[in-house]
Amino acid sequence: MPRTRLDEGSGAGGRATRRDALQLEALYDAHAAPLWRYVVHLTGDRAGADDIVQETLLRAWRTPKILQEDPSATRSWMFTVARHLVIDEARSAHHRREVDVAELPERAAGDGTDALFEAIIVEEALAALSAEHRAVVVRAYYRGLSVAEMAGELEIPPGTVKSRLHYGLRALRLALQEKGVTR
Questions:
Q1: Alpha-carbon span 35 to 180, nearest angstrom
Q2: Cα(39)–Cα(45) distance, rounded to whole angstroms?
Q3: 2 vs 45, which has greater pLDDT?
């Protein structure tokens, strides 16, 4: 793990003093190597471990009360922070290699299998109807004819067309229920 010196820059309180630099160096010397090994163990990524250790040390440096704690408590806190950073990185879109695209991909078209099965079931249920009921149901729902048009085509009174349509739909519903169709 490469080591850099901090001679000046900005820290938690503004400008870094020589004391801050020495404090950060002491923090690095005491905790960086074990912390780095821990993160490598969690991730298996040596380069990523450098980033997480750097961020953990930075957070510790920005939290003065942690630096005033017992060294074992400080190390424990830093391991917890590092673990949370690893988890955050694993959950991030960057880690999952998600990228934004300019255009959305085309929607997949259905293969029509469900529609084919539904058509077969309806055809079988229609075949179970009487010829008179089937003629009225097919004309009404597949050809879109009105009651008057069906009455003229079939040469029967409009009231008979309505009656056959009612009882034909009832028989069709029963035939579909027998085939397991519930909607």
A1: 62
A2: 8
A3: 45
Token digits of residue 7: 């001679």
Query: In sequence order, which residues have a C-beta less than 8 Å from that of residue 146 and are 6 or more positions away?
Result: none
CATH 3.30.540.10 fits 10-91, yes or no: no
Quote the Cα angle for 20-49-40, to 5°: 125
Going from N- to C-terminal start, the domains of the chain cover 10-91, 123-178
Structure tokens at 141: 């729902």
Q: Show the tokens assigned to 57.
A: 């040390």
Per residue in 75-115, pLDDT tens?
899 999 999 999 888 887 666 666 677 777 777 777 788 88
What's the one-letter identity of residue 173?
R
123-178 — its CATH code?
Answer: 1.10.10.10
Residue 8 DSSP one-character state: S
Output DSSP code: residue 155: T
Q: Per DSSP, which regions of the chain are E strands?
A: 10-11, 14-15
